[in-house]
């Protein structure tokens, strides 16, 4: 038996608005003059759980579409922003508590990354943070929520699974539907009407519950 923890990337492993703001700056070239100001207002609302939009990328895209920015332009802006991931143009940091959590987890827990983002810059960030070797598998451009299902099924065939992310519909709903445990982190964790197995504003908040889960699934039962 091999239990698995499946992590999302943006907003879960990596925190900070750097990549989102880079995306917004590129989209702003085709948007209204006050676009960046409106993006910042909505990001501030999202940070305290007061926005109806699911994350920073949704903020940028939704407000740009309101200004008439087309999908081709938005896709190009997003793709360009991802090439800057982890640079001074799009800085991010490891989530508070991440490094300590991964160090504390038993090596018998398989760690998996599953993200809708492309792979540009992510491998390099994991290496820079000193945690690349802890990941047994890296899945990019997954196409959540539907694209997460085969990853979950493969992991569940080997043992219990905990899925961790900041967007319930994308990161956790497919896991819950298949019987996996779930952990909701980020700005919506406290206000979400959903019922994840565990929740906290930061990964550090839920780290004790994650460690408890990991211990329980590795402990033989009579």
UniProtKB/TrEMBL annotation:
Residue stretches spanning the membrane: none
Q: Which UniProt keywords apply?
A: Hydrolase
Q: Which residues form a coiled coil?
A: none
Q: Which terms does the record give in the GO molecular function aspect?
A: phosphoglycolate phosphatase activity
Q: Which InterPro entries match?
A: HAD-like_hydrolase_sf, HAD-like_sf, HAD_sf
> An example of a Gene Ontology BP annotation on this entry?
DNA repair
Q: Residues of the signal sequence?
A: none
State whether keyword Transmembrane applies: no
Does Hydrolase show up as a keyword for this record? yes
SUPFAM superfamilies, per the entry: HAD-like
Q: Which Pfam families match?
A: Hydrolase
List, alphabetically, the CDD domains matched.
Answer: HAD_like
Q: Which PANTHER family match?
A: PHOSPHOGLYCOLATE PHOSPHATASE (PTHR43434:SF1)
Its protein name is: Haloacid dehalogenase-like hydrolase
Q: What is the protein's species of origin? A: Microbacterium esteraromaticum
Q: Taxonomically, what lineage is the organism? A: Bacteria, Bacillati, Actinomycetota, Actinomycetes, Micrococcales
